[in-house]
Specification:
Blueprint: E1 2-6, H1 12-15, E2 16-20, E3 31-40, H2 42-48, E4 58-59, E5 63-71, E6 83-87, E7 100-103, E8 107-108, H3 115-119, H4 122-135, E9 142-146, H5 151-163, E10 166-170, H6 173-181, E11 185-187, H7 193-201, E12 207-210, H8 218-221, E13 231-233, H9 237-243, E14 246-247, H10 257-265, E15 273-278, H11 282-290, E16 297-301
Parallel strand pairs: 9-10, 9-12, 10-11, 12-13, 13-14, 15-16
Antiparallel strand pairs: 1-2, 1-4, 3-5, 3-7, 3-16, 5-6, 6-8
Helix pairs in contact: 4-5
The protein binds NADP nicotinamide-adenine-dinucleotide phosphate.
NADP nicotinamide-adenine-dinucleotide phosphate is lined by residues 41-43, 123-124, 127, 147, 149-152, 171-172, 174-175, 189, 211-213, 216-217, 234-235, 248, 289, 292-295.
Length: 303
């Protein structure tokens, strides 16, 4: 089968290779999926750079949609050919950016939810939901989502509004209108952010979820809250200690993916898709993602 993977750590443009590899075999409790679409995330490039380093080669691609191809021992409730999606394990010699991928966790892909849309859900939804849960966001919370034009931030806005929170969001022009349509009060990021947010909120916000690029937002964000620990960053892990803000400590929340897939299929939730690239054109997706201005999820079309 064809797969995108690396044999040494380094810049993804240098170390990633599209090549033939042995098909992965589903172990007990796993399924194997014929991959139709694979979502790409900044984490893929970090894996190439040595994040969670281990035995090489390793694959990239942490979220997939496809159809069930084979079942591991003990798996029931799903059959060959069923449309599914889910997060792809990334510690093996191949991962989600491959014609076949094994999954530990999967959900039925509802009718009406295409493979690209489904493949774009797991990372954005899980990260957003976990961050909001860590912050204790609930009905009545006034929340600032910093970097709501990122895929995680766009998901977080919708999830928080669904929980009954008041959501203020910073975003560029691409998705500002869509975020307003979903109920957020939107302002730009950059200089003066704290003053603009405080004016909109009428005082400090209760909590902040930060997805803005590392090094860009924390000095302003700590001025929007009563205490720095009211800010949780999922992007600036190095800056967190310097500014006294929190990082996510909660358990992985893949359990909510099925619920948001149903909402997406019903047109009541979305993660924007910036582009769908054939597997052969993975470099174009890489460059768009690494530009920092992807403006949505980049998806590889496979199979
Ligand atoms: N800790 C975790 O578990 C975890 C998991 C997944 C992701 N993450 C992190 O979460 C962050 C978001 O990930 P993602 O994949 O959703 O990112 P992404 O969609 O690739 O982010 C790109 C977007 O960032 C926005 N942006 C650019 N400069 C900005 C600035 N100065 N301030 C605010 N927004 C800016 C742009 O949107 P607009 O200009 O159109 O607004 C751009 O389209 C990343 O830092 C990623 O590493 C963490």
């Amino acid at each position: 089968m064809r797969t995108l993977r690396f044999h040494e750590y380094g810049d993804p443009a240098q170390v990633l290779r599209l090549e033939e590899a042995a098909a992965p075999e589903p172990g007990p409790g796993q399924i194997r999926v014929a991959v139709e679409a694979c979502g790409l995330t900044p984490a893929d490039w970090a894996l190439c750079g040595g994040l969670f380093a281990g035995e090489l080669p390793r694959g990239i691609g942490l979220e997939v949609a496809g159809t069930v191809d084979a079942l591991g021992a003990g798996v029931s409730g799903v059959a060959a050919g069923d449309p599914v999606f889910g997060p792809a394990p990334f510690r093996g010699p191949t991962a989600g950016a491959a014609e076949l991928a094994v999954l530990d966790v999967w959900f039925a892909r509802p009718a009406g939810l295409g493979p690209a849309q489904a493949a774009g859900l797991p990372m954005a939804v899980e990260t957003a939901y976990r961050g909001l849960a860590d912050l204790g966001v609930t009905a009545g919370t006034t929340l600032l989502v910093s970097g709501a034009g990122t895929t995680v931030g766009f998901a977080a806005v919708q999830i928080a509004i669904g929980l009954g929170a008041r959501v203020i969001a910073t975003a560029g022009p691409t998705y500002a209108g869509d975020l307003r349509d979903r109920g957020a009060e939107v302002t730009g990021y950059g200089e003066g952010l704290a003053d603009r947010v405080t004016a909109i909120a009428g005082g400090p916000v209760d909590v902040v979820l930060d997805l803005a690029p590392a090094g860009t937002a924390l000095p302003e964000l700590v001025r929007t809250v009563a205490a720095p620990t009211d800010v949780l960053t999922q992007s600036d892990l190095a800056g967190a200690g310097r500014y006294g803000v929190r990082v996510s400590a909660g358990a992985i929340r893949d359990d909510v993916l099925g619920e948001y897939a149903e909402l997406a299929a019903a047109g009541r939730f979305s993660v924007p898709i910036a582009g769908v690239h054939p597997l052969d054109e993975w470099r174009a997706a890489l460059y768009r993602s690494r530009s920092g201005q992807a403006h949505g999820k980049l998806v590889l079309q496979i199979g």
